[in-house]
Every structure is written in C-alpha cells, then in structure tokens.
UniProtKB/TrEMBL annotation:
<feature type="domain" description="Penicillin-binding protein transpeptidase">
    <location>
        <begin position="377"/>
        <end position="648"/>
    </location>
</feature>
<dbReference type="InterPro" id="IPR050515">
    <property type="entry name" value="Beta-lactam/transpept"/>
</dbReference>
<feature type="domain" description="NTF2-like N-terminal transpeptidase">
    <location>
        <begin position="40"/>
        <end position="154"/>
    </location>
</feature>
<dbReference type="GO" id="GO:0071972">
    <property type="term" value="F:peptidoglycan L,D-transpeptidase activity"/>
</dbReference>
<feature type="domain" description="Penicillin-binding protein dimerisation">
    <location>
        <begin position="162"/>
        <end position="331"/>
    </location>
</feature>
<dbReference type="InterPro" id="IPR012338">
    <property type="entry name" value="Beta-lactam/transpept-like"/>
</dbReference>
<dbReference type="GO" id="GO:0005886">
    <property type="term" value="C:plasma membrane"/>
</dbReference>
<dbReference type="Pfam" id="PF00905">
    <property type="entry name" value="Transpeptidase"/>
</dbReference>
<keyword id="KW-0472">Membrane</keyword>
<dbReference type="GO" id="GO:0071555">
    <property type="term" value="P:cell wall organization"/>
</dbReference>
<dbReference type="InterPro" id="IPR007887">
    <property type="entry name" value="MecA_N"/>
</dbReference>
<dbReference type="InterPro" id="IPR001460">
    <property type="entry name" value="PCN-bd_Tpept"/>
</dbReference>
<protein>
    <submittedName>
        <fullName>Penicillin-binding protein</fullName>
    </submittedName>
</protein>
<dbReference type="InterPro" id="IPR036138">
    <property type="entry name" value="PBP_dimer_sf"/>
</dbReference>
<dbReference type="Pfam" id="PF05223">
    <property type="entry name" value="MecA_N"/>
</dbReference>
<dbReference type="GO" id="GO:0046677">
    <property type="term" value="P:response to antibiotic"/>
</dbReference>
<dbReference type="GO" id="GO:0008658">
    <property type="term" value="F:penicillin binding"/>
</dbReference>
C-alpha cells in the first residue's frame, strides 16, 4: 500500500488549497505523473543513472519510515546486494509514467542483467517515491527495489552447472570417447624415504610403458611439489590408462610413498586413437579463461585441438546458470539461503558424428606404432570417399600431420603426371620411354635413386621401377599447366570443406623447363598432405574425384563438388601400372599381402641435400585407399612400405 509520511505543521493557505484540489482529483482515480521538471520522473531517471554508475549524490533518498539516507550508504548497499554481479551493473530503463497517489509515486522500471554466456536476466520492479515538504521527490530505498526477494544483508551469487558433454561418434554412431578405467598414480610425502631415488624409479617405469607415453611424464617439479605439500596429502603424478598401469604395476606399487586410486575418465579406445584429429578434453587452462572469461571458469572441461577444440561449444552444450541469494553466517562466510532468483537450465551438448571406422583406425595406429619418426596414415573408403582413419605417429600430440602437412610428394606424384600424360596421348602402357642414368634440363641434372638406369623400356616399366629421368624427359609433353590440370582432376588444390583444417595441395605450374622436369616426379614446388594424396588415390581407384568426408553431423556447409568422370582408358592404364608397382616394381614386398594391392612408392627430397628425404606410399586394396607419409623416412621401401604392409595385414578384409 502507498505510504504517507508526517510533515512538520506549516500553515499555508496556498498549500491547503492545493491539497484540497488534489484530494478532489483523487476521488476520480490516481493521478498520472507529471513529466515536467518538478515531477517524479526526473528523480527516477537520476536514481537509475546513479544505481548503474554507483554515484547517487544527485538523488534524495529515504527509508520506508521517512528517515533520510546518505547516498553513499545506499550506493554501498546496492553494490553489496549485487554480490558477484556487481562488476556488471544492470541496464535500467523506465517502463512508463509514474503514478501519483497523494504524496507517493510509483514508477515502473525494467532491470536487465547481463550474465555470463550472453545470458540476459530481465524483470520489472517499481521505484516508490515520496514528495517532501520542499516539493522535491525522494526515492524510498529498500533492498526490494533491486529484487522483490532481497532483504538487507543478502548477496546475489552465481552458480554454474556444466551441461553434459556430448560424444564424438564413429561411423556406426557409437561414442569414440567414453568413460574408461584409469589409475591415478600419486605420492604421499610422509611416506617417501628418498625423493631422488623415487623420482628415478618412477621415471624409469614410465619410460618402459609401450607404446611410449606421448608426451612423456615430466617429473622435474615432483621434488618441489612433495616438499610443499602437507605430509599426508596425495600428490598426483599422472593418470594412466589401466592397461598402461598394469604394465608397470610391479615396478611402482611397492615404492615407498606411492599411492594409487582408481577412476574413470572420458578417453578414446586407445592412447593413440586418432589423437590429433580428435583432440583432447582437459580442465580449463589459464589462457582459456583469459580468452573467454564469460564462457569458462576454473574446473570446466574444455576441448583442445582437433575436433574437440573446433566444436567445443557444440559438444559442451549450454552451461546452466542460477542466481542465488546468500547471506553471511557466523564468521562472515557467505552461505546460500535456499532462494533462487533466476535459473537457466543446463543444456546437454550435441554429438559430433564422424566417418571414422574403429577397426581401420586401430589398424592405422598399429601400423605407425613402431615408427620412431613423425609419420601419418590416412585411409579413405573408395565407394563413398569417407575418411576411415587418420593416424599420426610420434610428434606433438595435437599436430594433425595427416591433414595439414605441406610436403613434397616425391614419386607418388608420378601417379598424377602419368594421368596427365595418358590423357594427352603422350604415352601408352607399352610404348618405349628411355630411362637413362641421368637427364639434364637447362643445365640441371636429374638422376634416379641409386643411379640406376633401365635403357629403353615400356613406359609401364618406367612407372613400376620409378624412373625419374624418364619422367623428366616427358615433362614437356604435359605443357606448362598440364600437371596442375591433372592434379585438379584428382581434387588437388580444391576448396574442400571437411569441418576441420586440411591442406589440399599446391601443384607446380608454368615453371621453367627444369622446374617442370622436377615437378613431373613430385619435386620442385609441388606440396601436398597425406589426406590430399589419399583423396587423389581414391579418385584414381574410383574413376572420379569426390571430396573426402569426415563429418556427417554437422555436415560441412560447402563441400567441394564432385569432379568429372576421368577418361576410362587413362585410369585403366594407370591402375594396371599401379598394380605392377606391387607385383614387380618398387613395392614388391607387398605382393604376398592378401588381396590385390595397388600402389606407388615415393621418396621426396625436402632440402638441398639429396640424402635428406621423406618417404611415401599411396595405394589401395578393395574399397580402401590410403596414403602413408614418414617425415625424413629415407627410402620408402625401408619405412613407408613396411608401414603400409602392417596396415594392410591388420585391416579387416571384406
């Protein structure tokens, strides 16, 4: 109900007449507020501005009993009541003209808070005002002005409730990342007899785990952490997958001071499983919080790298948010009162469906497991161009070399230049093309691996034996842009949309005669990624380019259009030659692998030292095309081809 406040008695005929006139008007209803300078609206506007700025000196303030209040006290109380919301004062707006009853006015206002995560919390309140003897309007202050459920001493606080993080799914719709058992390895300081020896023993045990932990467990700060911890504390060292822990349990279980606890953490099927492509989910780091203070707080789980990082917002869902009322308890500690002022329910994340095949990915990871150098393997299903596996060997855990490497393709690119030559009618399977020991173009001498020569042989033999000099001599028949055109027919240099970063290649074009000669066998300025070469190989096997696909939900918005049908006679001849690479050429160690394997080896120089080379193998069997890359792998027959063999032997046959 409106309140009236006693005023000192001051006989005033004018005022008595005015009061009588006002009373007469009130018999007909409530007065609308005056919008002029003497009306309550001016005071309302000043109050709202002062509330937001924290300076209420321009406003007269009284409590519900009519006692005057210092503006600084009210400003301080507003800040205290705001609690955790104080740093972001609300937007305050009038919602209509004040209504006046006698010497009391009520003014509707809208209070709108901006909460974390772009959440808006808006509600309507009323500001009550009393007209003093000097005819000035004063705001009747009480905590209810801020919110109807606030009382003196209350504090508003935010409570966050993380949504359930959704999974990354395989091609069958099953979660790739699910809760899996781990063992947390820790140390209890008061049980450690010899810190230096303990660190040495733990380090040796962790290094014995196979496959090796990447990154390795860093124990450099463990002595300091032990020294700083409480005597009976659990100082965590590392969380190990259960299978890794069991490998070294006998070595670390009885070490003085070691303690262990079992838990479950969301993990991929194996430690290596598409690790760079999937990314990781970890507690929020300082730079995460600094970059997105409205999104993350300490303790939140955040996707880093790969698909988990790229689609973190989709996977993590909407964080629930509650504005609660707290009150200081004994000792000054704030405790919840049980009153919630606002609540936004947490929303579960949306799953990400990929085309990955668990069995194929395991085969790819297993094939790289023994390779000490940085390496990658990409597998693509030929029939629908879906990515079945993307494996990366040793190296930074978040580096997806399989998709983003930009490296020369070496002799695997003879697949591309051969397609161009066949399309132009420049070569035939059995037409003779000389393979000398060296071939010179514009003063630059080209040679073959180990300086071999074949003489004049059918072109299919030049291809199977990977004769560089033969291709250098054929380069002019491709013309300035012929190699690039053949590459584009196989999808290279295309605008692919996979939903994650990928390099589709850059093919040499219109270079000098020497550059064109080098480019014909994958040197020069041509650069590719393993994914790009797997896609090109699948195009040869299929007879038409289709962009590799990785995500089906959400499906990428702008995938590259399918290419035109390749000339049947050209791809038939090229396939025959790629089969001969395996049956009688540089990939002959694969000839006893079950099924018909097609392929092309490649050794690519990456600097001015001919001894420094990357190793490649591209090929297919059945419905699976693949590319193997080994950084600084030397001869492909010694590194890339054995990886291909391990992959094919582990690959499920259909």
């Amino acid at each position: 109900m409106p309140l009236s406040y006693p005023r000192p008695h001051r006989p005033n005929p004018v005022r008595r007449v005015a009061a009588a006139f006002t009373a007469a008007l009130l018999t007909a209803g409530v007065l609308a507020g005056c919008s002029g300078d003497d009306g309550p609206q001016r005071t309302v506007d000043a109050f709202l501005a002062g509330w937001r700025s924290g300076d209420l000196q321009a406003v007269g303030l009284i409590d519900p009993t009519g006692a005057k209040l210092p503006s600084a006290d009210v400003s301080r109380e507003i800040k205290e009541l705001s609690g955790e919301l104080a740093a972001t004062p609300p937007t305050l707006t009038s919602r209509g003209e004040p209504k006046i009853t006698a010497d009391i006015a009520t003014a509707p206002i809208r209070v709108e808070w901006k909460l974390p995560g772009e959440t808006r919390w808006a509600y309507d309140r009323e500001v009550r005002l009393a007209q003093g003897d000097d005819d000035q309007w004063q705001v009747i202050w009480e905590p209810r002005v801020m919110h109807e459920q606030l009382t003196k001493g209350d504090r508003m606080a935010l409570r966050r409730d993380a949504g359930t993080r959704a999974g990354v799914l395989d091609a069958a719709g099953q979660p790739l990342v699910t809760p899996r058992p781990v063992v947390r390895v820790g140390v209890q300081p008061n049980g450690v007899a010899d810190v230096k020896k303990l660190v040495k023993d733990l380090d040796a045990a962790f290094k014995a785990i196979r496959p090796a932990l990447v990154p390795a467990v860093d124990l450099a700060d463990l002595p300091a952490r032990i020294a700083e911890a409480e005597p009976g504390a659990f100082v965590e060292v590392v969380s190990l997958r259960e299978e890794a822990y069991l490998q070294i349990k006998s070595r670390i279980y009885d070490l003085p001071g070691t303690k262990f606890s079992s838990d479950k953490i969301d993990l991929a099927p194996t430690r290596e499983f598409a690790r760079a492509l999937l990314g990781t989910v970890d507690p929020a780091q300082a730079d995460d919080i600094a970059a997105h203070p409205d999104r993350y707080v300490a303790g939140d789980l955040v996707g880093h790298g790969g698909l988990q990082g790229r689609y973190d917002e989709r996977l993590r869902g909407g964080t629930g948010l509650t504005v609660v009322v707290e009150r200081p308890a004994e000792g000054g500690k704030l405790e919840p009162t049980g009153t919630d002022l606002f609540r936004r329910e947490a929303q579960p994340g949306q799953a990400l469906k990929t085309t990955l095949d668990v069995a194929v990915q395991n085969a790819a990871d297993g094939a790289l497991r023994a390779e000490p150098r940085r390496a990658s393997l990409v597998a693509v299903r030929i029939s629908d161009s879906t990515v079945l596996a993307a494996a990366n060997g040793p190296g930074p855990a978040g580096e997806n070399l399989a998709f983003t490497a930009q490296v020369p393709p070496g002799s695997t690119f003879k697949m591309v230049s051969t397609l161009g030559l066949l399309d132009r009618g420049a070569v035939t399977l059995d037409g003779p093309v000389a393979c000398p020991k060296t071939f010179t173009v514009d003063g630059r001498s080209f040679k073959n691996s180990d300086n071999f020569e074949l003489g004049s042989v059918p072109f299919r033999t030049d291809f199977a034996k990977s004769c560089n000099t033969a291709f250098a001599s054929l380069a002019p028949k491709l013309g300035g842009d012929g190699l690039a055109a053949a590459g584009r027919a196989l999808g290279l240099e295309g605008q692919w949309d996979l939903g994650i970063d990928a390099f589709t290649g850059k093919v040499s074009a219109n270079g000098s005669p020497a550059e064109q000669a080098a480019a014909s066998f994958g040197q020069g300025t041509t650069l590719v990624s393993p994914l790009a070469m797997a896609g090109a190989t699948a195009a040869v096997a299929r007879g038409r380019f289709e962009q590799p696909k990785l995500l089906t939900d959400p499906a990428p918005a702008k995938p590259a259009p399918a290419g035109e049908q390749l000339k049947p006679e050209s791809v038939a001849a090229l396939r025959a030659m790629m089969r001969e690479v395996v049956t009688s050429g540089t990939g002959s160690t694969l000839k006893d692998v079950p099924g018909e394997v097609y392929g092309k080896t490649g050794t690519a120089e990456y600097d001015d030292n001919p001894a420094h080379t990357h190793a490649w193998f591209v090929g297919w069997r059945g419905d699976v095309a693949f590319a193997v890359f080994v950084e600084k792998g030397g001869a492909s027959t010694a590194s890339a081809v054995p990886i291909a063999e391990r992959f094919l032997r582990a690959l499920p046959t259909t």
